Amino acid sequence: MNGTSSDRVEKTKEFIHKLKCRFPKIEIEEIDERLTTVAAHKTMNFLEINKTKKRGIVDTISAVYILEIYMNKNK
Fold this sequence. Notes:
67% helix; 0% strand
């Protein structure tokens, strides 16, 4: 969040580069998804979802936020 790249960012960029080399005709979008899990937890808290159920759906809700970011980016 401070503007520097983490190890994970570097590994992801390497992976994206490999994908682009292997599939040059496919457009690959990069999405900053760092805060989607936080947003998912806030949503579940707002909906008063119990702690046991949260573990099972947090990734699904995060994925919905990532898709929403992608769709809004390409309007």
